[in-house]
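Reproducibility note. Readers wishing to regenerate the assembly model reported in the main text can use the exact inputs given here. Chain order matters: entities are listed in the order in which they were concatenated for prediction.
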Amino acid sequence: MGLLSRSRATALGLGLGLGLGLGCTPELEHDLSLVDEPRVLAVQSLPAEAAPGAEVQLRALYVDGDGPLTEPSLAWAWCNARRPLAELGPIDRECLEASAEALEPIGTGLAVAATLPPGGCRSFGPEPPPAEDGQPSGRPVDPDSTGGYDQPLVLQAAAATPHTTLFGLRLSCGPGNATQRQAAELRRRYQANVAPVIAAVEAEVDDQPARAVEADAPLVVAPGASVTWTARFPACPMAPACGDGLCTLDEDPELCAADCTGVIPGCGGAETYLWFDPLELRLHTRREALAVAWYGTAGRFPSPQTGVGEHDAIRVLDNEWIAPDEPGEAVLWLVARDDRGGASWVERRVLVE
Amino acid sequence: MVALGMHPGIAQIAQSAPRAQPAAPELTKAPELVELVEAEYPESERAEGKDGTVTLQIFIDASGGVEKVEVVQTAGAAFDAAAVAAALRFRFTPAEVDGKPAAIPILYDYRFELAEAPPAPVTAAFEGVIRDRTTGEPLPGVTVTVRGEDGAEPRSVVTGADGRFAFEELPPGPFAIELAGERLTATATSEALEPGQRLEVAYDVSPPPAPTPDEPEGDDLEIVVVAPPLRREVVATSVTADEARRVPGTSGDVVRVVESLPGVARSAAGAGQLVVWGAAPQSTRVYVDGVPISRLYHEGGFRSVLHPGLVSSIDLVPGGYGAAFGRGLGGLVTVTAKTPERERVGGRLHADVLDASAMISGPVGKRKRLHLAAAARGSYLEPWARPLLDRDAGGLIPIPRYGDGQLRAQWRPNARDRVEAVALVSVDRFRRGVPSPDPALAVSDARQLDFGRVYARWTRDSGDGTVVTVTPFVGYDRRRSTSRFGPIATSLDADATLAGVRASRRAKLGEHLVLETGLDAELETTTLRRVGSLSLPAREGDVRTFGQPPPDQLAADEWRVTEVGLAPYAEAVISLFEGGLELVPGLRLDPYARAVSRRNPPAASAPAVGLYHHDFAAEPRLAVVGRPHERVTLRAAAGLYRQRPAAEDLSAMFGTPSLPTSRALHTVLGGTVRIVRSLSLDATGFFTRAHELAMRSPAEAPLPAHALAPIGRGRAYGLQVLLRQELTRGLSGWVAYTLMRSERKDRPDAGFRRFDFDQTHVLTAVLAQRLPWGLEASGRFRYATGVPRTPVEGAYFDARRSRYQPVFGAHNSIRIPAFVQLDLRASKRFEIQKTALEIYLEVLNVWNRANAEEIVYSPDFRDAGYIRGFPVLPNLGVQWDF
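Running the prediction on these inputs yields the following structure tokens for the assembly.
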């Protein structure tokens, strides 16, 4: 089940009981994996997590039915408006207006370099907003499910459908509601997010042995062929050990000094990181979840998105793709995301003949 | 042979009024015999040419059935046995006490005659006796006046030394009866005569209090039998269990009739929410015998939480109710339960496609003063339905599991006292899940909803119009709710224990004054634990789409709320102009205190600081009932109401611990015209206004522990019309139409918008007809305007979460299409010796209309469609009463 049927599943699964399930749900056929018009498929920030005021490189995967768009008119802007508590979407709706005052333009094009606004942790993070009119400080923002906070970023592309794309750049802000000791512990041991990397792509065509598919060598398949694509991620250390580059809670910083001092390198797979549990109010070690969104200019992915949870040990994600019945070239994009907001993608081509 | 008239034997009214807080047992509607079973003339007596009259005392239950029969005056063993056997199979219209169904004993003369039937008479006779209720002595000097509907002069007689009176050659039909004396409260009741009938009644009255030495002696009398009907709830719809059982869609579950009553908006299929006069579902309080319960229906709304065999009647008061109740801004549903008083052990077994239930009751001991009853119900839908579904569908389709049970004991130590002890429990389980190749897209949902109550209820009817009721109770509510939208896991656990007492004393203080005083006390402690997004569960007014994942910002909190409400109240009934005008002023004082375990959001660096909050409110209520004509009743009411915030809203992280109580004003104006004896038309206009409703804070950064703000306002206004045919010749039903507008204002500087549950038109027509041979047919037609929704006018791509997000239009500016449905029910009753077997077939949505229940969007929000309700849905059930 993928994006095609996700809304149906959600509606059925989370709606109140409709006649013991005898009610029916409309089939709203929209294959979101098929790219047949200009669309922004992904946004990447390097680094994937940065502190307010830091320099970041931003780029977008902007494509249409013929492949990547090379001269798009993408307008980038920070959204500096904090989402009201009553707003249930991920962003203040004011920032969806192209001329909104809350938007801070940062450039145009497929990629831009920008400096994160300095007040991100106060506007979108755990630091209380400034007190006003003699009142106490306001409520800080709640962390996401990975304990992180995002600086909203808006892309406007007049030719794309939809015109507006939202991205959240993970801020390095530290935890909210933690003691100073916990905050210090987290700063020392926390490993900033590194965008996931698809290290290898393999294809298995009609039960033939899997083989690697490189960016510069199209895969050739017959019309209507069934192809199982596999995206491989780098292996990241799971069990804490000295020298693994992770300064986990059960490692003594004195004994594993190499892990706990200097720049912790990170990993392009499912990383292990520290998380401040807002209920138990203490630090925990956990792993990232990974997902791959599959797109193509032709053919069909029955499941447009596959993933692994934080408790899964596997580091490969696969998916079936049905080649189109007509000969031609198809461009596929595999967009990898981790649940801390990191993203990357690879492109592969398929000749159907 | 002929069967003679009945005399309502008011000396012992077996069932108090069906309000949760009992009123004085005053007969306002005598039972009518609707199914006469002719007794077999004993052959031995026929052979000897004997005839005779057997006087029976028939105990009629609240539904009109005969519970037991005793011989008061014998005519010989053979006649007695034949008369008792016939009378046990009689069926009556339910008697009403204070305008509500109740059990009642009557005296009945069964005459056995060999003579040929006389020519059809054209007149009738009415006679009876006025007796001292306490001593049974006849009372002389009471003026009895009858007024027919033919416009003829009223006729009066004065009871003689034997307390008797008699009228001969009265025109058949309904007529009013007035009892008066020099110092007698003017009272009235009504009877109906059939041609040739000689109606004999016995009115038992209480003597005046013994005169004190300072008072002159007099002949003051207090009529407790036929006191003016007291109807403190200006707008209320009462349905007997027997009437409700026959409504299609209830599947015999009588409490579900509430959804077919006027003023009630149609709830989404399977939701089971009560939206009364535009109030939020949680604002309508539900009571069983005066004890508050947390929910009326099991999950999914398919069944109520009370076994129908132990329900006597259901009352819906959509607004403007009296001072005895409070703590809710919306309506009031009171269920009067019963412990069947039977001569022997009996019960009921029931089964249909959803569940099976059993109920058993019977007397204990020779004197039969103690009666016990037990009932249990369990669903079995999941075991047989789950295997029919494929694996994916099994994850999608919610199949509720539920059960409930009741234990009841009733003891009548003497004629005045009644003590009941009751335990009831309800259990719900509910789980579903939508798997996905990406755990981030997997969805799951599970709920556990349990509650239990144990209460005792002591009622003393002193016989002089004074009734005292005390109902202490304890109970628990347990709720577990977990939902997961991919990585966004939310949970809410709430464990509440509560205790309380309702006590009332109603007494007649003079000719024109009845006063009820009481206390409504509740203590509740709730421990809550919540993890997840602020937006799940959704609140009224949230702008969202159906099934929309919540924001992935998470919070957590654990807190405890202790609340105490101690509300004394007083309500008077001032009867003027011989019952032509009633003023019912009431006052409820509601001091309220609350302790919340933490007022500051959880933080590792800060300990919890508790909060104590209290306030006081005086809630005046006033109702006026006028009867300018014997067929016309005009009513008006106004009152202030208050509702404490939900414990879930008092979190320092998810809500606001210092939320004040919400307030509301109800105003009601209406009237009833009794077109004929069994057909009435009721119209009621209403306007309610609420303020200090808890809404999400509109601020970007509200103060900590202020996620909710008491800034909401609400108003609802409309008109409800009820045309009701009471059971006559087997026909009963009603047409209820409500024209309504309900609105909310989210913040002071915003305009009013449509309430999430607003429905402009709600029409429900119910018709049931008893047919020969034990057949019964009924139908229900419903039309309801669709509820408002906020349109999606566009979308943007959320590259962080790899999903599209909706862009909304004006808040609640569109509606789901109207709901139209016809349901039919047919049943056949088989008499098997002394038991009855009923088989029924209920067909819902007969014409298979694809009613829209919700709007659903494609993942990119380009296209929209409707989730449709169930198609034609038959339900076959069987019920055996033994």
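We highlight two features of this model. Chain A has four helices and 20 strands. The two ends of chain A are 29 Å apart (CA to CA).
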